[in-house]
Amino acid sequence: MNHNETFETVESLEAELVSLTESLWETPELGLHETESAELLSSVLRDAGFDVTEGIGGMPTAFSATYGDGEPHVGILGEYDALPGLSQTVSSSREPVEAGAPGHGCGHNLFGVAGVGAALATKRAIDEGRAEGTVTFFGCPAEEILVGKVFMARDGAFDDLDAALTWHPSHLSAPFMAQTLAMNSVEYTFHGESAHAAASPQSGRSALDAVELLNTGSEFMREHVSDDARIHYTIPDGGGAPNVVPAEATAWFYVRAPTRDEVDRITDWLDDVAEGAALMTQTTVSRRFHTGCYDYVANHALSDTLLENMRLAGPIPYTDEDREFAAELQETLSAETIEARTAKLSEERREAARSSVLYPDAQPSYDVGTVLNGSTDVGDVSWITPTAQFWAASWPVGTPSHTWQAVAANGSFGSKAAVYAAKVLAATTLDLFSDDALVAAAREEFEASVPGEYECALPEGTEPPFHLTL
Question: Where is each Peptidase M20 dimerisation domain found (predicted)?
Fold first, then answer.
């Protein structure tokens, strides 16, 4: 399909899209608290004539914006939450805007804006009679704590889609084809008795002792789970002064594995360990389930179409000035970091990537058949409807996400990747509108590759964890 008009439409929106990326970057907000960010993006679509629904899944910052009529119905996923402690100026040295404040270290200031741009370009094609179908942009909060799309899925937000599309900033451009890990996020809070730790320790029952026993027990579980499984924890509350026996203490766990079944088995075991820790310390334990997401299942038919459109739209038009700043950022990375980030590439592609500080040309997927040792709530969507996503080169080659270097890039030349991603998402949406065979092929593959019915992992009554400021 010829997408020249689609690309021209996105280019006509470029100034507005870049301004949006800058506004989100300048006001970074943490997950479930993205009030200004969600309102900014939803208002753009509302003003353009989209039907906006807010508060999906019990989350004030979750919304959908729909335009068009009939089938197919294509969803475009967007995110806009930032990360704690990553405040950073557009500079090649570590220099926070405000020490300890959030920053867009994962590029979500670019992520959501690109989806808005794609939705606007699709609307124009519908209005001009070049396309028929329905497009919905989903404003998805709190991806960093793997909450937003899970609670939206429980609310049925994605049930009527024929396909879902999304992207993510990265240091290279390619379809994202790896399986990700399913995950549970659970807090265990132990309740004991306070006492003077020196004068009358026998009067106390230490909740912190119980937390430490739980954590020790989890270490002994590691030998007996699959190699790809992950169990990690923090202690958000370990008590106060050392001379007071802690009456309350909390351990927060992430349990990850390639399948939901294994995640649930490990979590059940961890529940037993927590009960055992409580028995050993004569404390009690309460469990708070925050969220649970599925593994991601890539759709090859949709991913192949994304790659075609990435090639049609690219390369991302970085300038010499962009490359100069990118080179300054790249110099702050260790050789080991760059090596680790490019290790999955073929030798030919690795050499090409290393020779270019920015590598904006689209390439075939480099992670087909692999398991990415991380999680995404896009996984839930991929179990509900055919789903595809892609990486777009927004950062210097070798740059990890969740770093100050990524924050600096996202506030600078990364905005060009958002415009590029908007082109790819819009073009692929219009391909789905015009090609019944593509829709059918994506559905057929989905039914063959997704190993079961989707059942939201959230226990009944689970509410969004607004208390988490991560």
Answer: 185-275
Confidence of residue 164 (pLDDT cuts 50, 70, 90): very high
Would residue 463 count as lying in a domain?
Answer: no
- The helix or strand, by DSSP H or E, that contains position 48, with its residue range, turns out to be none
CA nearest 269: which of 347, 217, 313, 207?
217
Position 347 scores a pLDDT of 82
Residue whose entry in the numeric block shows the structure tokens 């075939």:
364
Residues 289 and 299 placed together within one structural domain of the fold: no
Per-residue model confidence as pLDDT tens digits over 193-207? 999 999 999 999 999
Q: In angstroms, rounded to a whole number, what is the distance separating the alpha carbons of residues 376 and 108?
A: 13
Flag whether 457 is in a domain: no
Kindly compute the dihedral angle of the four CA atoms of residues 403, 409, 410, 413, in this order, to the nearest 10 degrees: -170
Residue 464 lies in a domain: no
Q: Are 445 and 301 in contact (CB under 8 A)?
A: yes
Indicate if the pLDDT at residue 468 is higher than 90.
no
Helix axes 414-434, 300-313, angle to 10 degrees: 120
Of residues 50, 170, 43, the one with CA closest to residue 121: 50
Domain count for the chain: 2
Residue 461 region, left (φ>0) first, then alpha (ψ -120 to 50), else beta? left
Report the C-alpha gap between 402 and 106 in whole angstroms. Answer: 5
**What is the maximum alpha-carbon separation in the chain?**
82
Distance from C-alpha of 369 to C-alpha of 5, rounded to nearest angstrom:
35
* Same structural domain, 187 and 199: yes
CATH assignment at residue 203: 3.30.70.360
8 A C-beta contact, residue 108 and residue 23 = no
Last residue of a domain, one of 293, 315, 349: 293
The yes-or-no verdict on residue 360 having pLDDT over 90 is no
State pLDDT tens for residues 202-261: 999 999 999 999 999 999 999 999 999 999 999 999 999 999 999 999 999 999 999 999
Q: How far apart are the C-alpha atoms of 393 and 308, rounded to whole Å?
A: 16
Q: Answer yes or no: is 465 within a domain.
A: no
Measured CA to CA, the distance from residue 82 to residue 141 in angstroms comes to 10
Contact 245, 204 (CB under 8 A): yes
The pLDDT tens digits for 63-116 are 999 999 999 999 999 999 999 999 999 999 999 999 999 999 999 999 999 999
Range of the domain at 113: 3-180+295-449
Cut 0.90: pTM above it = yes
Q: Which helix H or strand E contains 306, and what residues bound it?
A: helix 300-313
Per-residue confidence (pLDDT) for residue 343, from 0 to 100: 83
